[in-house]
Amino acid sequence: MLSLHFITFTSFLLAASVLGSETTPSNTPASTTLTFNPLLQYHITQDRHTQHLLAGDYNSAIDRDTPPTYTLKARPTTVYRPSSFEAVEKARLRSLHHAQSEPVEWVEQVVHGPDIEDRHTLVQLARMAGDAYQLPGRKNWYDIDPSWNINASFPFGWEDDEDGFRGFVFRSHDNDTIVLSIKGTTLQGPTSKKDKYNDNLLFSCCCARVDFTWIFSTVCDCYSSSWRCDDTCLSDALIQDSLFYSTGVDLVYNLTSLYPSANVWLVGHSLGGAIASLLGSTFGLPAVAFESPGERLAAKRLHLPLPPGPPPRSLHPEDGNTNALPRVPVTHVYHNADPIPQGACTGILSPCAQAGYALETHCHLGRSIVYDTVGRLGWRVDVRKHVIKEMILNVLEVEGQWPDDEEGKEREVPRAKEELDCVDCFKWEFGDFKDAVLLN
Q1: Which residues, if any, are the signal sequence (predicted)?
Q2: What's the pLDDT tens digit per position in 220-255?
Q3: Domains of the chain: which residue ranges?
Q4: CA of 236: how far to CAs of 86, 233, 265, 374, in Å?
Q5: Which residue in 52, 67, 57, 43 sits closest to 15, CA to CA?
Q6: Which residues are known catalytic residues?
C-alpha cells in the first residue's frame, strides 16, 4: 500500500489534466440533464506546509467499455459569490478578533445548480450523501449504477483513523459539474469521537452543556452561570483547526482552483450536510443538505460574511418578505418524523443526550424542503428515522404526492421555503460574561 504522503497533490493535477478541460458556464444557462460518473475519493492532510488534497483516480479501476452513469437535472441558479475568498477570510477574522465589520463585494452569477424540484435528482444526491459513509462494494453503499460495485479504490480519507473528514468527489462526463459529498456522523467507529466533537461544538447552545451533569462533557469553557454563555469564547472555539469546517475550506479552495470554470455542488447528510451548507455559503456554491441540524447559529459564531437579503420587494413573493435572511444557495431536505433537524432531540432524557450529543439548534440557512411523513406515512417522531437510509428508501423514493402546507395542495416534491422567524437557544443569554468576571 502506498503511503498517503507519497501521493502528492501533483497526482490530482495530473488526473485533472487527463480528464479534459472545463467549459465556462454561460451567464444565463438553460436547464439541462447531466450525466455523471465517480471520479475521486479524497484525503485531507493536517500538514499546513503541504498541499491538502490527495486523490486517486477511480476510472482506472472501471471497465472502460461499460462506464457507470446516471443522470441529474440542473437548472439556472442565481448565486452570490465573494469577489475573492481572501476578502471573506479577512472580513471574518476582523469581525472575530476586533468586532469590526468589513464590506465584502458579492458578485451575482447564474450557474447550473441542482434541480431541487426534481425527485430523481434529489434521490441521486441523497445516495451520493449516503455513499460518503462507506467505500464502494461495502455494506450500506447505495448503488447509483450497478457497475459501481466493482470499483477498486484507493482508501484516501479512510486510512487516517483520527482524520474523520471523509467523502467523495463526482464529476459530469464533460467535466462541467463537480459534486462534493461529505460524510456525516458515525456513531461507532474511528471517526466517531471527532464527529461528536464537531456536532456538540456546532449545534449546541453553549459548549454542549445540557445541564450541570454535563460539566465534564462540555467541548469548550464558555459557560458562565445561570443560562449565560460567553459569545467571544464560543467564536474562538469554532476556529480551531480540528473543526471540520476549517478542513473543508481548504478542500473546496483547492477543488475550485483546479476547476475554476466548473459548477461545484456540495451535498451531505446530518453533520456532513451542515458542513456542506457552511462551505456553500462561504464560497457561493449550491449545496443540498439532508437531515442536517440547524447551522444558522454556527454560521454566526464563525463570523461568516454572507450576502445580504433581497430588497424590500422580495425575489420570492410567495414566501413573503425575506429581507432579513441572507441569499445563500443552500437547500435543506428533511422530514418531520426526524427530531434532529427540528431541534427536538433535546433534554437530559432524550436519546441524543443519553448518547452524549447536544443537538439543540434547528434554524437553517437557505431554504428547506420538509416531507410530512407524520401525516402521509403515519410515522412517529423517532431519532431512528434520522439515518440516511430512511430518507432515501422510504421518503424520497416513495412515489406520489406530498402535502405542501398551502391551501391543501400536494406536490411530488414539497416547495422549498425559508425558515422565517426562527430563533435558536431562546433560554440562553449571550454576551461578554467572561470579560465581566475578569474586570470584577
Answers
A1: 1-20
A2: 889 888 889 998 888 888 776 568 898 888 888 888
A3: 9-439
A4: 20, 5, 29, 40
A5: 57
A6: 270
